[in-house]
Design a protein that fits this description.
Elements: E1 10-14, H1 26-38, E2 45-48, H2 56-67, E3 70-75, H3 80-97, E4 102-109, H4 119-135, E5 143-148, H5 149-152, H6 158-163, E6 166-170, H7 183-201, E7 206-211, H8 228-245, E8 248-250, H9 267-272, E9 315-318, E10 366-369
Parallel strand pairs: 1-2, 1-8, 2-3, 3-4, 4-5, 5-6, 6-7, 9-10
Helix pairs in contact: 1-2, 2-3
Length: about 375
């Protein structure tokens, strides 16, 4: 099982399909992982949604091993035949490649939000996958579930929490109609709601941020408007805090065929990325169609691919004026949870530094400790 060297995993969500709907090959996955590692701040972890669909693990794991990328693995649960195929694909990948590439395993994704299962069934499946891994001598691999914060705070789902080694929290202030200026507070509040329930039901279980982001294009929802500057502002305030305080997987690396589009990488950049090598450091498509303003997430399919070009080497400094909105208050900031790893831890133009000419500037920026007051979040 992989372990983070910098305290917390940080990565992006990746779907198993190309924009055409075709399944990704090993070369496609290698390109994706190279793209991750070329982003400002350097990322070498990703969350996948499936194991057998599109031969996800069969194609992605060789590329992950070759590039030093670590994966939060997904196992779908919708129907028994599919579920069995997912488990078989996970076992095969472990038998062929060991487990150094595995961060953890998520059994299902937003099944509770979509009301596609019940808590007892999902809890049983989580325990089954845990037993499966133990039978392979891999009991140390954490097994959990990813769902919306609204599902986690629902009392009828507490049995799922009790079955989890970790709880994956999906939260989108955009879908709740919050303005981008309200985004950090909304994100913190909803994360705290999930944590409060988890701490009561199963103390000591970690809550991971498995999906959040802000769209660069798409419809307005309440006070939430989409644009590259807004996506950048949300990144600066939320990502730059979350990366230091909690395991975080941003949505999404690419979904430029979707509306709204949350992707941080444009089509031309993705096509032109070549394989790169980087020193080994720890960093680390959603399951669910657009949700209403009372729900924190959006339905996305694996066939979606992504968004905007990633802009240059601009830095998101922490503690200075540039990212002052990222300050924690000691109660609601994302780093106010137990630390399992022992560490405390673009505007529309064609001028962006990555060379894209798709008319969209990028917003991911490297988060670094800057001068002034220290912020709890990178």
């Amino acid at each position: 099982m992989a372990t983070p060297s910098a305290g917390f995993w940080k990565g992006f969500n990746l779907g198993g399909n190309l924009p055409t709907g075709a399944c990704k090959t090993t070369a496609d996955w290698a390109r994706d992982f190279s793209t991750l590692q070329s982003l400002p701040g350097y990322f070498s972890s990703a969350r996948l949604f499936a194991s057998s669909d599109c031969d996800t693990l069969a194609n992605a794991v060789p590329a992950a091993v070759a590039s030093g990328t670590t994966l939060l693995v997904g196992v779908w649960t919708e129907n028994n035949a599919h579920y069995e195929a997912e488990k078989a694909a996970l076992v095969k990948a472990i038998q062929q490649h060991g487990t150094d590439w595995i961060i953890a395993v998520s059994v299902g994704s937003e099944d509770l939000y979509r009301v596609e299962t019940d808590a007892a069934t999902l809890a049983r499946q989580i325990r089954e996958v845990k037993t499966l891994l133990c039978n392979l001598g891999k009991c140390d691999i954490e097994v959990g579930h990813v769902d919306t914060w609204t599902a986690w705070v629902d009392p009828k789902n507490e049995e799922v929490i009790r079955a989890c080694d970790f709880v994956g929290h999906d939260g989108y202030p955009y879908w709740e109609g919050a303005s981008v200026q309200q985004g950090l507070d909304a994100f913190r509040q909803n994360l705290a709601k999930t944590r409060n329930v988890v701490d009561r039901v199963k103390p000591g279980v970690w809550v991971w941020v498995t999906e959040t982001g802000w769209p660069v294009t798409g419809n307005q929802v309440g006070l939430a408007t989409t644009s590259t500057p807004n996506a950048e502002a949300y990144w600066k305030s939320v990502a730059c805090e979350a990366f230091q305080g909690v395991h975080t997987f941003w949505y999404s690396l690419q979904d430029y065929t979707s509306s709204p589009s949350f992707g941080v990488v444009g089509q031309l950049r993705l096509k032109s990325t070549s394989t790169q090598t980087h020193p080994s450091t720890s960093t680390s498509s959603s399951s669910s169609t657009a949700k209403n303003s009372t729900s924190p997430n959006t339905t996305k399919t694996q066939a979606q691919a992504s968004g905007v070009g990633v802009g240059g080497n601009a830095e998101c400094t922490v503690g200075g004026d540039e990212a002052g909105e990222g300050k924690g208050d000691g109660d609601g900031d994302v780093s106010s949870h137990n630390n399992k790893n022992g560490e405390n831890n673009g505007n529309e133009d064609d001028d962006d530094d990555d060379g894209d000419d798709d008319g969209k500037g990028g917003y991911t920026q490297r988060c670094e400790q800057g001068g002034g007051e220290e912020v709890k979040g990178v």
